[in-house]
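Lecture 7, part B: from sequences to assemblies.

Below are the input chains for today's worked example.
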Amino acid sequence: MPSFFSNKKLIVLLTSLVVLIVLISYSLRQGNKSTWPEQFVQDTVGWFQYVVNVPAQYAAGFFQNVSDIGNAYKENQKLKADLADYARVEQENRDITQRYNDLKKLMNMQNSPDLFNFIKHPAVVIGRSYDQWNQIVTVDKGRLDGIRPGMSVIAPGGLIGTISRTGNFTSEVSLISDNQNVNQISAIIQNTKTYGMIEGYNANNGRLLFQKIPLSSNVKKGQVVTTSGLSDMYPSGLMIGTVTSVSTDQYGLTKAAEVKPSANLNDLTSVIIVERKAKTPGSGGTLN
Amino acid sequence: MKQLKLFIILFLLFLTQGTILTRLPFGTIWKPVQIVPDFLFVALLMVSFFAGSKLGMRYAVFFGLLTDLIYTSVIGVYAFSMTLAVYLVSSAARWLNLNTATVMLLTGLGVCLLQAEVYVIYLTIGLTAQQPLDFLRWRLPATFLLNAVFALAIYHPFHRFLRSMAELDEK
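Predicted structure of the full complex, as structure tokens:
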């Protein structure tokens, strides 16, 4: 098409293609570190996003309130029923904690932190990528609040993703539904000793792929999958989802299951960033 | 002054795309259908139609890069695709008589072109696993409609604004 591309324009196009490929390979290779121009842009835009979000949240909150009023009676009944149980459960919890700590002291383990212990950093979602290929959410806590890449992020339902990049005041969360989320999650089926790996997401039916489950294990539909705590950054016991179907993998060597995430990934407003207390060799600390 | 106003309008569109619009249930009401609001790009195309394709392309590079940094994990894809799409569509627009209908059609097609470019690049580097058939069937038609409707909604005020800006530049 001579009218579209003259010689000079063709050269410009080819040069920009080369620049594009260089940039892509740079950002695919670079991993978790973000350079200062990236951080600067991320923080500046993050501030504006925060400002835009305030009225948006008010509006969303208003509609939420209106629909909540309809459910108020039913919810109240249920809460009353739960409240009757609450005192008993709390007492039980206190007893068990006490016993657990005593036993730990007995075994001289009181100084080694547990795999399920973590510090919570609450954060508010201020932005989200709008093309549905990138599943990235921006939150309003960053490096200065103690957030580091690799920390896991949970929402009211359960695990939703990992911190992928941090600026000074904002950070990016790569959701478990993101295709680039190469962080595999070591998972376990609750109350069993069946371990496996969460490796990928099927966007068509919204299910996580739970793979490398031993062939001899007895995986059933409806079982709850949580993090195992054996991987680098995830504390143990974070809820991931429930098993919806079980099959064998393509080589017939292990079982594979599909897991429905327990957190609603489409409606994220406030999340909790989880900092695991137990150090791992990989995260730069020393084992006790 | 007008330039600053234009920049602010485009930046606001860029922000709303990632904040307010993602709270609306575009993608979730009807599961397989993906509707992508690309309102910033619709505005960029109109800038290139009515205020010169050079200006449109300059803004496309800037906002493409910003999109890459804020909303994606790979730098450069949107900057390249947006600039190329603005160039191609504004060259095609020179052959047409621009009125409401053609602008609607061109912006809708332009958004689809941008989606296709980004899709091909993402597919090659493994950032998306969407099947080509799903992309054509579920993503493009709905996205085309939404963005064409948005183009219709902003056509008259935005057109007048850009015309007055172009006249100011000529003086």
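Note for the exam: Chain B touches chain A through 48 residues (CB under 8 Å). Keep this in mind when comparing with the next example.
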